[in-house]
Each structure stands twice: as C-alpha cells, then as structure tokens.
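Quick one before lunch.
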Amino acid sequence: MFYRPGIDNHGLPHNPFKAIVAPRPIGWISSLDVHGRSNLAPYSFFNGVGDDPPMVMYSTTGPKIGVDEGKDSISNIRATREFCVSVVSSALRDAMNISSGSYAAGEDEFEMADLPKGTARVVAPPFVAHAPASLECKLHRIVNLPGDAVVVFGQVVGIHIREEHLKDGLLDVTGYQPLARLGYRDYTAVTETFSLNRPGQT
Ligand SMILES: Cc1cc2nc3c(=O)[nH]c(=O)nc-3n(C[C@H](O)[C@H](O)[C@H](O)COP(=O)(O)O)c2cc1C
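Model of the flavin mononucleotide complex:
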C-alpha cells in the first residue's frame, strides 16, 4: 500500500506511522515549574542526537488527553531551561504509565507514582532515583515543526548511572531491560542483544 499523509486516507483502523518508526526509546522527562514544583512525564518522540557534546531531543505534540491545557513539560522547560531524562527499566513500567496521566499543572507525578527523587548535581530538576541511568540537561533550542509538534533539544551536562547496572564497565542493558514504545498501545523491552563488527573492524 501507499498513501500520502494529510492527503490520502490510509484506510487502516489506526494511523500506522508510530508503528513504523519503532521501537522508540522512552525519555522520562522531569522538570520544575517557576514555583519549584516537580513534573514527570514519558515522551517516546525522544532520542540522542549528538555525542560530543551529548545532545538529546524530545518532541511534544498536542494537548493533554481530555483537557485543553498544553503539556507541563514544555511550559516548564521554556520557563526554567533545564530538565532531566531518566531511562525507563522494565521494573518501572507501571510507574511510567501512571506518570503519563493528564494531571493538572503543579501536580507532582513523582509522588503519584511513588517514585523517589534523585538530586541532580548541575541542574535543578530531580530525576527518577531508581532509573538505571539519568541525564541532566540544559535547554539548547526549541524548534516548532509544521503542525503542532514542538521539539526540545537539550545538552547533556551530567550523567548518572546506577552502579548495579554496570557489568565489567558496560551498561547491563538486558539486566534492566529498557522499555521502548511501538505503535498503538504496544511496548517492547530489550531482553537480548547481539554485536556486529563494522566493515574493516576486527
Ligand atoms: C510511553 C508514552 C510515550 C509518550 N510519548 C509522547 C511524546 O513523544 N510526545 C507527546 O507529546 N506526548 C507523549 N506521551 C503523552 C504524555 O506523556 C502525556 O501527554 C503527559 O500527560 C504529558 O505530561 P506533562 O503535561 O506533565 O508534560 C506519551 C505517553 C506515553 C505513555
């Protein structure tokens, strides 16, 4: 099949785009509002986009489900220019899901999901203390895309890795099994890995 988004009707029961761009890592974005109140929400339009210096991006689309308000993460980051990103392990899946609810601005999803806060060293927002790894970020730039997507680029200025998730100096990914988003309501977790040598590498 072929269709042109915005022009043709795909004729499928659900929009297939997010199922095609999958799996997507989940950035668990924490921020503070101007009053110092914490916010936490998952974003799967998320990725690393540079490594020297390390850079990340996430994209916010549309309002919160069921309410007219815009999303708190973008308002907070516009106002305070800092955020953290935590990795969602398989063990944290329910807490991550709770934190995605459409709560009023100022409500603290760390408390709702019963998640202890880790204290950042370079930026002010807390991160998910039990996450296998968390990134402290300073806002680099906000870019408005066609339609309603707004992309936030951040420079990573601090990196936390929980010692128990390091094995022989490497991140033990299959130990903590990071969650990733597929299409529809589906997720996957990394439970196995394999390695390949690039051409010319031994
Ligand atoms: C796994 C998952 C991934 C999500 N990814 C995105 C995303 O990439 N962009 C987005 O705008 N909303 C995304 N959402 C929805 C937000 O998490 C939700 O709207 C949340 O209420 C926003 O919280 P905030 O207002 O505290 O920022 C996602 C939800 C889940 C459960």
